[in-house]
Amino acid sequence: MTVQAQSSQDEIASEVDAVLANIVALAEVFPADKYEWAPTEAVFPFRRHLVHVSQASYFILGFGGVEPPEGVDVAGALENVMEKEDVLAFLKQTHEFAVSSIRGMSDDTMDSMVSLYGDPERTVRAAMLAYLRHNSEHLGQLISYARMQDIVPPWSQ
Fold it and tell me: Taking the complete model, does pTM exceed 0.85, yes or no?
């Protein structure tokens, strides 16, 4: 059996897809009346994690030259995307957009240099890996929130 090497875009997009799919799955099973719940006042409520992941997606994808789709209010999402069904729609749209955007980046784009948050320059490829790490951190937090509410992540059942 011959295994074909994938582009770094496909490899990163596949991992982003897996993490975002798990975030969406948790968002779907988490009760709507618990979307504003947080284990303490010092941390984000469940809904805010979900909206933040979407907002950060558009921000970081921008380093690869990707603009949010027309009509997506990234800046106002935290205040305007409040109900579970709206959060899910925003998150699912972001999921599809992020995966297809990363897959569509050229090698030249992936090799170009950017600076995130004033850090030393890195390639767009490294920025996409930082994006994957960011989403993975939030997935871990969301799993903890779910477990505190006696919710078993769907992929663990």
Answer: yes
CATH of 8-35+43-156, one of 1.20.120.450, 3.30.70.120, 3.30.70.420, 1.10.10.10: 1.20.120.450
Question: Token pair for residue 133?
Answer: 């790490």
DSSP symbols for 58-77: HHHHGGGTPPPPTT--TTTH
Measured distance CA(125)–CA(132) in Å, rounded: 11
> Residue 113 — φ and ψ, nearest 5°?
-100, 140
pLDDT tens per residue across span 25-69? 999 999 999 999 999 999 999 999 999 999 999 999 999 999 999
Q: Nearest CA to 101 among 6, 19, 12?
A: 12
